[in-house]
Amino acid sequence: MTNKFYASAVMLAAAASFSTAAQSESRFVTGTASPLTASANLDFTVTIPKFVYVRIGTGTNAANNTNVDNVVFTVPAANVGDGTAVAGTGGDLTGGQVTARVTGNNGTIAFSSTTLGPLNNGAGDTISWGQMAVAVTANTTATALAHPTLLDGATTSINLTPTSGTKVTNLDARWTYSYRNQNIVPAGTYGGVNTQNGRVTYAVSMP
Amino acid sequence: MRAWAVSTIRGFSALCALALLAETAQAGSRFETSASSGAKAAAHLDFTIVIPEVVYLGSARAADEKDIPAQLTMQANDRAKPDGPYRVLTNGGTLAFAQSRVAPMQPPEIGSTSGMSEILPIRAYVVAMP
What we know:
The complex is a heterodimer. By secondary structure, chain A is mainly beta. Helices cover 9% and strands 33% of the residues of chain A. In chain A, strands 1, 3, 4, 8 and 10 form a five-stranded antiparallel β-sheet that branches. In chain A, strands 9-5-12 form a three-stranded antiparallel β-sheet, with no helix packed on it. Chain B is an alpha+beta fold. In chain B, 17% of the residues lie in helices and 37% in strands. Chain B is built from one helix and seven strands. Chain B is elongated. The two termini of chain B are 69 Å apart. Classes of the chains: A mainly beta, B alpha+beta. Chains A and B meet through β1, β2, β4, β11 and β12 of A and β1 and β2 of B.
């Protein structure tokens, strides 16, 4: 009984001494050595989440924004189908111009545009997306974000190479849309707010 | 009691499902984070093109097309080719094209320099569009 008690006490004492031998945030050293030194340690951890961001038109940096811009082209009657390009209205930069931005931090980003089909007026008449011209100009980044070609009822994709190191991509641009107006087409309103194939989806995908 | 609890849970689950559905709404900008492999996001842009209704009737040699109402009356007064050629252009559907009237021969006005050889018939053409 006494031997078991002493054995337990020894084990407890050993456990207590073991804990006092671990690394500490303070160290007290005495002695005759010169110089006399002591050190303490501090650990740091920085967690960076993987993210990808796309903005076309009105948007909020590094956040979701549900506003979808509508770029409108009104062709003058005297110019229907004569090849005179028609400038748009709307877009966050107005005049048919939008801010386009893609950022991500995990490698090459696949950037695509998708339409459901040619724009239509609800009466069986259509205008091909080939009649929509896009002019790309630089915004804040040295390299302007390219625009994936618009096709009728299809998706086109381009790869965005990282702009810093091997994983970080930061690209933006100003995209200006215009209607080529190269064909005499039936009267009507083609496309619209998420109707009659007027909506284009720009998507990003990152590993 | 149990039935009440089950109903409450079901209702709460439905609310959660609706909240998730709202998160997938279309947007102008989208920020996505992902701890697993692959991160995706999408933004949208709408387009509208307005094409007005137009109709044109004129000489085929004319270069101008004017913004004119759906019904137009034009007189043919081309001395070289009083019968045309003419051009009709429209984008509003079936066009009714008719000769409205043929005026009787008209003598030249007193004091004009026109001679009898220059008397021209007057024809009027009408186009109408729905």
